[in-house]
Amino acid sequence: MTLPSADTSDVIVVGGGAAGLSLAHRLLETRSATVTVIEPPDGPLRPAGRTWCYWHAGVDGLEEVVGASWDVVRVYGADGRPVAVEPAPFTYRMVRSTDFERLVHGHLARSEGGRVLRATAESVHSVDGGAEVRCRLPEGGTRTLHARHVFDSRPLTAMPPARTQLLQHFRGWFVRTETERFDPAVADLMDFRVPQPAHGLAFGYVLPLAPDRALVEYTEFSAGALTTEAYETALGHYCRDILRLGAFTVDDTEQGVIPMTDARFPRRAGAAVFRIGTAGGSTRPATGYTFAASQRQSGAIAAALRDGHGRVPAPYGRRTLAMDAILLRALDTGRINGPDFFTDLFRHVPAERLLRFLDGTTSIREEWGIGLRTPVRPMLLTAVELPFLPRRSRPVPRRGESNR
């Protein structure tokens, strides 16, 4: 790579969230392009710190920023019975956004072909020979940057039409207990012992960081987000009455909301402008998982640019999206019971296969076998109905980023 000029580089990445930082990281690893990352300055457009979790087996280049990992994962059914599985060779890994940002910013600072610009991107569009981004600088004034390719991870201003749209919305507490209340070897992915909403489903989520520390979240899949007061009430009930933590303090909080939708997210916004992250369809519609798909897509983009191609691969295949559309509709109509559905998957499907299924990397034969473990009749009824349903536009959820 060669040093970019003040206003020109091979690639501009707009946004410094999980998707933008992941792409910059992979581009620097492959030395496939000079990179400028445009991040908003400190203020309301800059997201607060958050956690990202994902499945992986083996080495992936992120080991130094993995703050915790778990070899055993557990689900509690609504009946209170736990299902604990060991998904070897996979581990469940947690990355804090501040650590990931520090890693990628460090690589950019040390690279001759990388840099970070703190500015607000106001417009992005294709021009002859590439694309340009017009930015507003923190101190005032504007600046226009040019690149061969622009990858835009900013949230959409309007959601594409969809047949079904739920929201995954959550609030979490980083708690510290007075006594040792957590098993650091076991992560609770879904705890359905919490009260269920009239529409959708709810669960607790516990990631132990030490015997006396954990990230504890309350999550819903439903049509609308809650007030902060409602999340706090639900978290308090979960920590005190279900987990029975005893005395504890809250060191930090995080909150978010992301779409769970069968909308079609276009990956191209111009001849040389591409969307990545949730705006480009990287959020798995039926689970909300995003981070692993962003890693796969970022690696593929970096390899394509290194080899002289301009293709941006889809985060998920058509088969995966079709299955998710059926599941979302079945959940939304109440044809299936959400807590029972997810608990039964963990009870009856081999853990390693199930986790690959949740990431969208299983074969059609494996998916057929998993499908037979689901409520077949309501799923078939939904599959027959779905093609005849109209797609409608819906409001964009409040700014959020998946913690998966």
TrEMBL record:
Database matches in InterPro entries: FAD/NAD-bd_sf
Domain of life of the native organism: Bacteria
Name of the protein: Lycopene cyclase family protein
Species of provenance: Streptomyces poriferorum
